UniProtKB/TrEMBL annotation:
Record's protein name: Ig-like domain-containing protein
Residue stretches making up the Ig-like domain: 45-132, 135-254
Organism for this UniProt entry: Anopheles farauti
Biological process (GO), any one: synapse organization
Transmembrane domains' residue ranges: none
CDD domains the record matches: IgV
Origin: domain of life: Eukaryota
Gene3D superfamilies: Immunoglobulins
Alphabetized InterPro entries for the sequence: Ig-like_dom, Ig-like_dom_sf, Ig-like_fold, Ig_I-set, Ig_sub, Ig_sub2, Ig_V-set, Zig-8
Pfam family, one: I-set
GO CC annotation: neuron projection membrane
Length: 348
């Protein structure tokens, strides 16, 4: 009896030890490897969840929604647009008149990719990848189509003094998180970082032109130009790989303060208008003065008249007296029958 009790206790302890070792191996097994082991022996189709399910692209680009199904067997995959329950495809056959939609199937029949060319904002929404099992299997994907545009902070015309620092900041606040990168161009040339040179090789000098790219709430690229030169003037374009670009004009000036230059540029049109008005007023005043002078000269000629020089009395206007000419010498004859004037003897 004692041997039976001891043997039972020994068997119980051995069972507990084996169970403890099995649990330890299971706890130390990585989760993905454990899943792969389970999936490997699964006789039914299943979805691979290690794919992006929230896809963001910008307007005009091609959107790809990738659905991966393992252990397909004789089953097929369909794509459903959730907002109107429209069956877009069944297998590789497409059931929509919109030619932008297409299904791409891999050689191993594991990847079923819904492709949407020239994506528009109206294409945003939920798309379901379904497998015709019983009951049906489905996995939802969200597509976000945004209109991303770059913005350069500050004025579109920037005036800086030669030798100062030029800083251009380009921001893309809306768009996919995988916006890629941002390139800077001056005219048609790509802006490349340039190192400052010194006679002392032991001194470490920064790049005269540097580009800093970072992602916080938005994708931001900062172009910095140290010791601005006149040759740095030009049209600078911020061009993202997945968004519409934008430009700014940089003017590097020599001598005048940038703020004064900006104010002068901002009021150039008003100054030109004022100058035009002033010139017109001056011309108008000159015309008035010339007219008055001409009018006075005409009055003088009219008051003298041509008769004054020719001595023609009949040409004088009636009732006018020419006080500029001395009275003609004359006498009245004693004969009352004669009423004409006759010159004095010896008169001219």
């Amino acid at each position: 009896m004692q041997y039976i009790i001891v043997g039972g206790l020994f068997a119980l302890a051995n069972l507990h030890f084996n169970h403890h070792n099995a649990m330890g191996v299971a706890n130390h097994l990585p989760a993905p490897q454990e899943n792969r082991i389970i999936k490997k022996f699964s006789p039914h189709p299943y979805f691979d969840f290690d794919v992006p399910r929230n896809i963001t692209t910008r307007v005009g680009q091609t959107a790809f929604i990738n659905c991966r199904v393992e252990q397909m067997g004789d089953k097929s995959v369909s794509w459903i647009r959730k907002r109107d329950l429209h069956i877009l495809s069944a297998g590789t056959a497409v059931y929509t008149s919109d030619e932008r939609f297409q299904v791409i199937r891999s050689d191993k029949a594991e990847n079923w990719t819904l492709q949407i060319k020239f994506a528009q904002q109206r294409d945003s929404g939920i798309y379901e990848c379904q497998v015709n099992t019983e009951p049906k299997m489905s996995m939802a994907f969200r597509l976000n189509v945004v209109e991303a545009k770059a913005i350069i902070l500050g004025p579109t015309d920037l005036y800086v003094k030669m030798g100062s620092v030029v800083t251009l900041t380009c921001v893309i606040s809306q768009g996919p998180h995988d916006l890629g990168t941002i390139y800077w161009y001056r005219g048609l040339n790509l802006v490349q970082p340039i190192e400052l040179h010194s006679n002392d090789p032991s001194l470490a000098y920064p790049h005269r032109i540097s580009v800093e790219l970072k992602w916080t709430e938005a994708l931001t690229s900062r172009l910095k130009i140290l010791d601005a030169k006149l040759s740095d003037s030009g049209n600078y374009t911020c061009l993202p790989t997945s968004a519409e670009g934008t430009s700014v004009m940089v003017h590097v000036i020599n001598g005048e303060h940038p703020a004064a230059m900006q104010r002068g540029c901002a009021t150039t049109a008003n100054k030109d208008q004022h100058r035009c008005v002033q010139v017109l007023l001056a011309l108008l005043m000159l015309l008035v003065l010339a007219f008055e002078r001409w009018h006075r000269t005409d009055l003088i000629h009219t008051s003298h008249g041509p008769w004054a020089s020719r001595g023609c009395a009949s040409a004088r206007p009636t009732g006018t007296i020419d006080r500029t000419m001395p009275p003609l010498p004359h006498v009245i004859t004693r004969d009352p029958s004669v009423s004409t004037l006759s010159p004095r003897p010896g008169g001219a």
